[in-house]
Amino acid sequence: MASKNPDPVLSNSTAAFNTGQVTLNTITDIVNIYIPLIGAVKLLVGEIYQIYENAECNKEICKIMTNRVKAAECSMDMIVRNMNDEEGDFRKKSYYLAFKRFENILINIKDFTKDVSKLKGYKRFLNAKDVKIKYEKLVDEFENCMNDLNFAIGAYNAINREKDSQKVDKALEDVNQLLRNLGENVNEIARDVGIIKAQIINQSSAVRVEKIKENDLENPTFPKHNDVRGSVVKKIYKPLRIEVACKPESKYHETELAVLGILGQSPHILRFYGLTTLNNQQTMVTAWAENGNLKELYHKYDIPWTRKIQIIRDICRGISFLRTVNIFHHDLRCENIFVLQNLSIKIGNFRCARKADADHSTNLKDLYTNIISWMAPELMEKYKDINKREKNEKVYTFNCEMFSFGMLMWELCYEKVPYDTWAWIQSPDLRISITELSHKLEELAGKYPITHDTAQLLPDKELDFDGKKDLAPTDSLYPDFDDPDEIIEEEDIIVPIEEGIRLHGKGDRDGAFKSFKQNFELPLAKFWMGYYYLNGYVVEKDSDMAMKLFKEAADDNHTESQYRYAVMLLSKKEDDEAAKVKNRQEIVRYFTLAADNKNTNAMYYLGDIYINGKLKVPKNEQLGLTYLRFAANENNKNAISLLKKLSK
Predict the structure, then answer these.
(1) Both 83 and 144 in a single domain?
(2) Rounded distance, CA 306 to CA 449, Å?
(3) 0.85 cut: is pTM over it?
């Protein structure tokens, strides 16, 4: 903020860093202080831009934030070029503190955009209102900081802020509509998948696949000519009296099949029932697709346009569901979309699927020639050079998945394998987001429904894909840092939070607490301040302040704070019944957030809550045991003890 009094300049004091001494006598000394900050800012801006490029949803929100930080970076570069002016702002105490605040705000913006840009991260927020509040808070903090730094970024007036606000509201509504379309149980499925994937990473013996007895399978009473398709055989699964497909399979790991068993709970994913042994071979048992795959279907029939719209809409829902559980399919094409008796579709063949945040992408070198027509240009670069094919770098992004989906749509529309030169947009960041595409498909599906008098399928060659038939007419499809009475002393140099944590470990609580206060904008700093208030370190013990700080950090997705805030709520006494209900809901919510972030103590509490029906939560022994077993596998003593007590 501007001050009427002259701002103090750097004194000749010495700034102590853990790597040595820096004497602030010359402009060179000042430059040395700012270089780490400038480097950190540039790195953060690059990371925020990368998040925007790879955004799956809320791309408009990410774009708004990216535009702001990129403009700030340009202004910073211009000012830095004039740093040699010894009378410049860089000598002022308020400017140095504001610059450090700029770095911390960028860290918070990066974390926010990272969360809202992915369906999995977005679900951490309670609702769209929470996202909007967080967005507005960050924008206010950012713009105030820009004013303090005198960055010329073309300040947003009230009209621009209102336009941005409307874009944010639209983006949030699109995401909420998409999640509603996925069904009410998507959160439960995502939770179960997350637990199993974590068990897989830790090579837990608790991961098991459903085993089906061979005598529970029998041949159909009335066999058909297509009951045997190569190695796939139709059987009747007697316990459920349903038709199933039995396929010999040795390439899947059992742990991967456990994930498939949960994914199949989605109405848009081919159901996997378990493993059996037929003819001395390990065999997968899945739902029977009477009409084969989508490629086989369009070779036999022409598919009416109204049905194509519904099919594409349902595939989009399936892809969206996979993103909520953080999985990429890696091989989207009509051959991997299965068609049931009623012509509903299911995404299948997850042999290439991987976690989105896995260290390595699936190596597709053995399938390269088969799937190149659906492969994104940036992914082709990996396989173009024979030497690069053997490497397994993480290059597959959601943009690659959307490109393949686009080529699948082309394939279905023209009912033939696409040409690689007929692809979508070559630039990954310009491809449509999943929420925008889902919104358009829902509109089309509503506008062109499948009516009762519409043919289910048409004779092959009925539709004119090549334009050779006569065309019939159709409808168009923070505080003021100016401190004139003080000069910068060495204690004013901001201590990085990592150094503060190191000081805490050495027993220097005063030095540590100073660092936490200086970096207060960061969730990690808020957690440590809460920890100090809770234990009365340096400051007077204050449980209310500790709880407040833990909650603020928890809402910024700091795992340990989520757990500690929930624990503190357990001892909170409320007289009003409505307040009691809200308190119980908060406890379960924050324990769940912490458990989703792999906090085993939170998993122990949730296991106890669900098994015993505590906090008036409906009993769910299976879910409770799942949490306890995962925590026990990570050597959580409380979970191990409770499982022994339960004889589980």
Answers:
(1) yes
(2) 6
(3) no
Whether 633 and 578 share a structural domain: yes
What percentage of the chain reaches a pLDDT higher than 90?
A: 45
- The CATH number given to whatever domain includes residue 206 is 3.30.200.20
294-324 per-position pLDDT tens digit? 999 999 999 999 999 999 999 999 998 888 8
**For helices 577-596 and 559-570, angle between their N-to-C axes, nearest 10 degrees:** 150
User: Do 234 and 378 belong to one domain?
Assistant: no
As a whole number of angstroms, the distance between CA 476 and CA 201 comes to: 51
Helix residue spans in 117-157 (DSSP H) = 119-122, 128-149
CATH number at residue 149: 1.20.1410
Q: What's the rounded Cα separation, in Å, for the pair 353 and 361? A: 9
Cβ(270)–Cβ(339) below 8 Å: no
Q: What is the dihedral of CA 437, 438, 443, 445, to 10 degrees?
A: 110
Residue 247: strand pairing partners: 284
Find out whether 111 and 556 touch, Cβ atoms under 8 Å.
yes
33, 97 contact by CB (below 8 A): no
* Among 287, 322, 337, residue at a domain's last position: 287
In whole angstroms, give the CA distance from residue 346 to residue 339.
Answer: 6
Looking at the structure, tell me whether residues 198 and 87 fall in a common domain.
no
Per 3-state DSSP, the chain is made up of helix, strand and coil in percentages (nearest 5) of 55, 10, 35
Signed CA dihedral, 422, 426, 429, 430: sign only: negative
Give the distance, in angstroms, between the CA of residue 387 and the centroid of all CA atoms in the same chain: 32
Is-contact 478 145, C-beta < 8 A?
yes
Q: CA-CA distances (angstroms) from residue 611 to 230, 236, 617, 643?
A: 46, 35, 9, 11
**Which residue range(s) make up the domain with 512?**
490-645
Residue 466 in domain: no
